[in-house]
Structures are given as C-alpha cells and as structure tokens.
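F.,

This is the one I mentioned.
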C-alpha cells in the first residue's frame, strides 16, 4: 500500500464538503475551480459574484495519545443571498451532527475516492492518495454569520468550524546517528556504524 505524505486531513475535508454541496445544494464551480480555496486563491473567486469558501486549518496533539491528532477546519463563506446561507449551514450541520457517523461517512468516501471502479483505477485501491488518514471524530464546533451586509450589494459572509480527530499511517524518515543502539526482536542489541535516515 502506498501512503502519500502529500495529503493532509484538510484536503480530504475540502473535497468531501464539495461533494456534499454538489449533491445537496445548487452550488457550482466558480471560474472552473472548486469554490473551496486557501486564502491565497481567494482573488480568483471574489469578483465572481458567486458563492465561494476560503478554508484554513490548525492541528495539535490530542491529549495523551500521540497517534491521535486533533484539528479545526475553518470555512469562511461569501454568498449573495440568504437562501444559500441556509443551504450551506443546513448541509454542513446535518452532515456533521453525529460525530461517529460523520467520521464513518468521510472515511467511506475517502476510501472510495474517485469515479467508479471501471473508469477510475484508484477508487478503493491501495494507490488511493487518501488511504492512510482515518478520522475518528468530526463535528461542527462553531457557526457564525448570515448577518445582513453593512452596505447594499456587499456579500453575506459567515464562518463554520469543523473539529476533527484523526489517525495517520503516514511516516517520514528520521535521522539516526552512528553509535545508536537498536534492540532486535530477539532481545539483543545492534549498534549502527554510520549516520542514517530510517
């Protein structure tokens, strides 16, 4: 199984949320882009007059278990009408209202990422780039917005935060200096003779 170190939980959530919106709202791509972008891509969408999202995230350790990571995925939305605000908040809040069910749904989706198994050989395969990250919980932690804009014609903006915990099978090589003692399976020790990355 190939586990990509280029994928992070925020990438999975971004694409999953876009699929939620495509299947539950009238939202569409903006200027040929998935309208959920990092802050540096906002200029490509902000003059479109269409609904778009800017995302960011932060991560930390999750208590005493190093294997479980914790994060917040934050979406700032910009739209022109209140009915879209309702579609956005309803879709997100219903999709993530039950933490266990939400993480199961996202894990199922990411395990089968891509098209169907006939047209997309990565769907459900060991080469799927999302294999190796598994969510243990997902929930909406904060929602704000939908207030009338300060000036006529200005967009309606809001924020939705989704908290998540996950386990990653991703690994990186670590430096081990010469002279390091390594315990073997049989209980004996071997000492490295040169610096190495393992």
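My design for it:
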């Amino acid at each position: 199984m190939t586990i990509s170190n280029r994928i992070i939980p925020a990438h999975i959530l971004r694409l999953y949320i876009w699929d939620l919106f495509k299947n539950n709202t009238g939202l569409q791509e903006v200027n040929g882009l998935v309208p959920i972008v990092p802050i540096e891509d906002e200029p490509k969408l902000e003059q479109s007059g269409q609904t778009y999202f800017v995302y960011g995230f932060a991560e930390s350790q999750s208590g005493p278990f190093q294997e479980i990571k914790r994060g917040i995925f934050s979406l700032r939305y910009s739209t022109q009408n209140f009915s879209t605000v309702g579609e956005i908040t309803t879709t997100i809040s219903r999709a993530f209202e039950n933490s266990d069910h939400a993480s199961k749904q996202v894990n199922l989706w990411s395990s089968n990422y891509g098209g169907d198994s006939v047209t997309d050989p990565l769907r459900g395969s060991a080469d799927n780039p999302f294999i190796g990250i598994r969510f243990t919980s997902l929930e909406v932690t904060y929602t704000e917005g939908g207030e009338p804009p300060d000036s006529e014609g200005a967009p309606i903006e809001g924020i939705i935060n989704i908290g998540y915990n996950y386990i990653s099978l991703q690994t990186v090589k670590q430096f081990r200096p010469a002279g390091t003692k390594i315990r073997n399976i049989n209980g004996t020790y071997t000492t490295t003779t040169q610096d190495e990355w393992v």
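Confidence is low (pLDDT under 50) at residues 118-123.

Talk soon.
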